[in-house]
Write a structure and sequence with these properties.
alpha/beta, 28 helices, 16 strands, 55% helix, globular
Length: 716
């Protein structure tokens, strides 16, 4: 166990977090068997630190709290000090600086008392980091020097390099460039000597940022390219696709810097190509991954896979029961955590097994070229690709004939406008006072391009995913979203596509005392409100898709989907509630019938992680449910949630919603949308025409009623 823990530290110091995680897990199992609680907590804490540095803050928090609880139970003050230090880092990452400094203060006080140089050095370093973030860089320098001296005393070369890099950043903020350059250079030398490629990359990115400010553009570009290579080496070593995505999102600043430098040097095409190589990576990898070949698995692997899946099913069933009944909030939250943990274990395990199988190959973005994206666009099409960063944002307008780049305000300014739109939408929903939904000047801020008459494809970023481009690009012939331009270039109509047929799921029964079931239930029973207009919506869709199978009432059950052909139809339409979990997007769900025909409870939630495991040949999936196009925004990946789940499962196109939609207006929009499809209109054009029909109707003229519907096209 001790050897494995040491080996895990070596793996991490050499920039191999995947091997570090697996090694710490092996050590943890040994300590658990030996009932050595303090050492088991040490492994939990180490795993938490790796997860934290990979950007998985939720997973890190859960591991830290478990470790702290175990150390406190064992009255291990040394362990508790390490746990408090790491928890402080987590709080600082969430910009809870007051609470973080409180943790660091306790660690420093205790470390001075017992003369623990290691704990003192890291407590001082992290407190200094928090001070720099709060504009106290000058005061932080003394703490960095004390931290560095303590690390030298104990021979912690890795920690000394970390402190040098952090102190260099403080000097950079103070405008003392010569001192900053010296510290960054020493940090890089130490990282290279230790074989820490990841740490080297971070230090080189810091020096590239400094050189950019000093006007050394070409040197900064060469430096940041090395940094990107180091980040990619770590990213590609991670087994779990979700972890790869989160890690890259947490290191997005390196790509921000590289794109900014390229734009400074007027190399717009290369900047666009870098944007493409950084975009929707995990989705593209999902398209390229083969299913697990069970016949290649050992008996042990089969047993582990079955156990992981069984735990997820059990946790999902438990959560569904709690969601459908009067249950204390703390119990529901515990059930959500249990399911999220089970899903993480399953996806991590499946990823490791898949990577170990013959012929596995991770999708590589190196072949992405702007000219190929241009060739894929029709004469009337324009791709608008966005990149938001702190200092400035960028928009590339790509057509078959050329590429133009536009500088936009930094991320914070655009996010502020996005918040104003969200507030206006909420006001309209509650009061039906809908004037001024789109702030004056927002179109000029984010769309300085003439798109009149064009078919507009939007590769959004950050808060832009939640903006109604149907309004902003009002003169466009059609508007659709794409995860990346490369999907257009690499797309085709090939693959396993459905030849025909449609399935409509609408108006599910959510409660046993619904008149359609008529059972008496205990007072206080919970359940979602009925969506009465969804039945009319289903009829409108059925009228345009003759022969469609329609599941209504208690027949709109989760266990009826397979028999109804959900995995074979060309058109798949859902008219129900969506439950969006932005913290844990794989727990987001579509609400189905919660009882059967006899009023007996059944699992009434189809969750995103279940959809991702499907293999759908659908040409079109319509999620006619509130906020179904929302979820967690992950930098470089886009929105992770229900829409993304159907894309990953294989659907070619998904229609979702940005906000809580009006039932009656939705019936009219869907009737017009499917009528357009029936006339052979492309999906984006049919949706645009339907939106214009509603906008021309006095009852539904406000953008609130029609602009929240978005089409995502994942041509591949």
């Amino acid at each position: 166990g001790y050897t494995l823990m040491g080996l895990g530290q070596v793996y991490w110091s050499q920039g191999n977090p995947q091997a570090a995680l697996e090694t710490f897990e092996r050590a943890e199992r040994i300590w658990k068997e030996q009932k050595m609680v303090a050492m088991e907590a040490e492994c939990l804490n180490s795993r938490g630190l790796v997860r934290f540095l990979l950007g998985e803050l939720g997973a890190a928090e859960e591991l830290y709290e478990r470790a702290l609880g175990m150390w406190r139970g064992a009255k291990d003050r040394n362990g508790e000090g390490r746990g408090l230090n790491n928890r402080g880092m987590l709080r600082a990452a969430r910009r809870e600086f007051g609470r973080a400094r409180e943790d660091y203060g306790r660690v420093i006080g205790w470390a001075r008392e017992v003369k623990d140089a290691r704990a003192l050095s890291y407590g001082l370093h992290n407190l200094a980091n928090a001070m720099v973030e709060q504009g106290e860089a000058r005061e932080a320098l003394k703490l960095y020097e004390e931290s560095r001296a303590a690390k030298r005393e104990i021979g912690d070369r890795w920690g000394e390099a970390v402190t040098l890099e952090a102190r260099g950043e403080a000097y950079r903020q103070l405008g003392e460039r010569e001192a900053a350059e010296r510290d960054f250079g020493e940090a890089i030398e130490s990282r290279v000597a230790m074989g820490d490629g990841y740490g080297e990359g971070q230090a080189r990115a810091a020096r590239a940022r400094l050189w950019r400010e000093m006007g050394k553009g070409e040197a900064a570009l060469a430096e940041v390219r090395v940094a990107l290579e180091r980040v990619e080496t770590v990213r590609s070593s991670l087994a779990n696709r979700d972890t790869r995505a989160t890690f890259f999102a947490s290191r997005r600043a390196v790509a921000d810097l590289a794109i900014g430098i390229l734009m400074d040097l007027k190399r717009e095409r290369e900047a666009l190509e870098l944007s493409e190589r950084s975009r929707a990576r995990s989705l593209l990898e999902a398209f390229g991954e083969d299913e697990i070949q069970v016949k290649e698995l050992s008996a042990e692997e089969r047993a582990r896979l079955a156990a992981w899946r069984a735990r997820v099913r059990a946790a999902s069933d438990a959560l569904s029961r709690y969601e459908s009944a009067p249950t204390p909030g703390a119990v529901k939250e515990a059930a959500r955590r249990a399911l999220a943990k089970g899903i993480e274990e399953l996806r991590e395990g499946e990823s490791r097994i898949r990577r170990a199988q013959r012929g596995f190959r991770l999708w590589s973005p190196e072949g992405v070229e702007a000219k190929e994206i241009q060739k894929s666009l029709a004469a009337e099409e324009v791709l608008l690709e966005y990149w938001l960063s702190e200092r400035e944002s960028w928009l590339w307008a790509v057509t078959r004939g050329g590429i133009t780049a536009h500088r936009l305000p930094g991320r914070a300014a655009i996010e502020k406008e996005g918040e104003r739109v969200a507030a206006a939408v909420e006001r309209c929903r509650k009061t039906r006072v809908c004037e001024g939904m789109i702030p004056a000047g927002l179109e000029r801020m984010v769309l300085p391009v003439n798109v009149a008459g064009k078919q507009v494809r939007i590769a959004a970023d950050g808060v832009l995913y939640s903006l109604p481009f149907a309004v902003l690009a009002g003169r466009a012939a059609s508007v659709s979203a794409v995860p990346s331009g490369w999907m257009l270039a690499a797309g085709s109509e090939g693959g396993r596509r459905a030849k025909g047929g449609a399935l409509v799921i609408a108006d599910p029964v959510f409660r046993a005392d619904d008149l359609r079931v008529g059972k008496t239930v205990a007072a206080g029973a919970e359940g979602l409100p009925r969506l009465r207009f969804s039945r009319e919506e289903a009829k409108a869709v059925e009228a345009q898709l003759p022969g469609a199978k329609v599941l209504l009432d208690t027949a709109a059950r989760k266990d009826a989907l397979s028999g109804a052909g959900v995995g074979t139809v060309r058109w798949l339409h859902w008219a129900t509630h969506a439950l969006v979990d932005e913290r844990r997007p794989l727990l987001s769900a579509l609400a189905l019938a919660a009882v059967d025909g006899e009023g007996r409870p059944v699992d009434g939630f189809l969750r995103a992680h279940e959809v991702m495991a499907w293999r759908l040949p659908a040409e079109m999936v319509v999620l006619s449910a509130c906020r179904s196009a929302q979820g967690e925004v992950l930098a470089g990946e886009g929105l992770i949630g229900l829409s993304r789940a159907f894309l990953e499962a294989g659907a070619r196109r998904v229609v979702g919603t940005l906000w809580e939609i009006d039932d009656q207006a939705t019936v009219e929009l869907m009737r017009a949308f499917y009528a357009g499809l029936g006339k052979g209109r492309p999906a984006a054009v049919a949706l645009r025409e339907a939106q214009r029909q509603l906008a021309a109707d006095a009852r539904w003229s406000s953008p609130y009623y029609w602009a929240g519907f978005v089409l995502v096209d994942a041509a591949r």
